[in-house]
Design brief:
Layout lengths: L2 H13 L2 H8 L3 H15 L4 E4 L4 E4 L1 H29 L2 E4 L2 H6 L2 H9 L6 E4 L3 H9 L5 E6 L8 E9 L1 E6 L9 E2 L9 E4 L5 H12 L5 E5 L2 H9 L5 E4 L11 E6 L7 E8 L6 H10 L8
Parallel strand pairs: 3-4, 3-5, 8-12, 9-10
Antiparallel strand pairs: 1-2, 5-13, 6-13, 7-11, 7-12
Amino acid sequence: MNTKDLAYFKALVEKRNFTAVAKAFNVSQPTVTQAVKRLEREFEDELVHVDRAHSRTEITRSGLLLYEKASSITASLNLAHQEIENAKLSRIRFGLPPIIGSLYFPSLAGQLLKDGLLQRLDVVETGSGGLLNSVKNGETDIALLASVLPLHDPSLNVIHIGSRPFVVVVSRQHRLANRGSVFFKELADEEFIMLNRKFVHPAAFKAYCQFAGVNPPVIYKTPDISWITSLVKENLGISLLARDVVSSSDEEELACLKVLDPVAERFNVSIVTRQGYVFTPDEEHFVQDLRQLKIPQS
């Protein structure tokens, strides 16, 4: 099967006009017509019906079935092109969220440098939500991701490394600072400062709110973790963060409160790749190094 034929056919289903498809691909209209005829011969069925009396191009049921498959075939071919082009460059396309990058990844840097892998990384740094899509669409091949529940996705290969609790972070000036723990319903009237939806924290916040039956206001959202902790230190609001975000040096100004609500959501850390992705020797070595990442046990 000619992949160009599939591309023309897919465009024809979307545009319903041979002339428009020919113009889009900068080919002649007979080229598009012949492509459709070749597909019809291959599948031994009519895919496109031209109603000349009413100047309409109609797609048959068989044509619609092929269109659905053509979309996934085209996506797979594009992904293969990306993977093969990247393999030629001998680079490792790696996704790393800022929190994991600052908290856990530095402990591996020495080993990666020794193995000659650190200098081969092309790092994409953004929240886990964005990186999950980046892995799926082929922009990134390997990622360290956070998720509020262990990841289960048939399109992904997931290696779970560990998990950490979420905590409520307040200023030492806050009325709850000396409590040590809190039920989320007690925070119904508190003002929250949160990470934005590129991160997993909003999903955890939603789970706690639903369990407690409360809806505290979020007064500010940002992708900048240091900005959140700075605002909380000034007692301008409170936050829900992964426990390790608050360092020992921060604890003079910030208090971490254990959340007593029995929800399943935690800060889960996993190595994620696409299902069926074929590693280069360097990538295989890199994943083995990532598996040695130390996540504190809570």
